[in-house]
Amino acid sequence: MGLSHLGIFHTVIGVVAIIAAVGSLIKVGKIDLEKLGGKIYFYCTLTASLTALGLSSIKGINPGHILALLIVVLISVSYFLHVKKRGNNRSRFIENFFLSFSLFLSLIPTVNETFTRVPVGHPIATGPTDPLIGKTLLLLLILFIVGSVLQFRKQKRINKAI
Question: How does DSSP assign 7-71, residue by residue?
């Protein structure tokens, strides 16, 4: 696959983060920073995003770096809201959305890199503009929107009950 040691580390940590997030979404309905899955997602995503800054096939800052920095901002704001705004139920809406959005943004390069590298020697996509990548990202966008609406509705019910 032609991955550097940093690339391998980044990939493994990123996969762990995505698995933790999906597990948390299935189990709890959100990426909950109070639970183990949410903590794993936060720390692994932070690590994967920061290591992404050291990965590039071209010199200088590229869209992948900007995406990684945006993800760091999203999860950092979510963490701040989780820790500092515990009694503020409105903050849960932003926290939930930002964590889910960070997962969606993480999946963009994940889909691209996976589809253009796997299986080794005969990847299922030819490049970032391959229609399969576009269709997969569209499906993930729809899932993100539907999931965000469901999270919003669930959080609204929780806030009313408190």
Answer: HHHHHHHHHHHHHHHHHHHHHHSS--TTSHHHHHHHHHHHHHHHHHTT--SSSS--HHHHHHHHH
Q: Could you give the CA distance from residue 21 to residue 31 in angstroms, rounded to a whole number?
A: 6
Task: Look up the pTM and report it.
Answer: 0.93
Q: What are the contacts of 130-138 at 24+ separation with CB within 8 A?
A: 136/111, 137/107, 137/108, 137/111
Tens of pLDDT, residues 117-151: 999 889 999 999 999 999 999 999 999 999 999 99
Judge whether 56 and 62 are in contact, CB under 8 Å: yes
pLDDT tens for 36-49 read 999 999 999 999 99
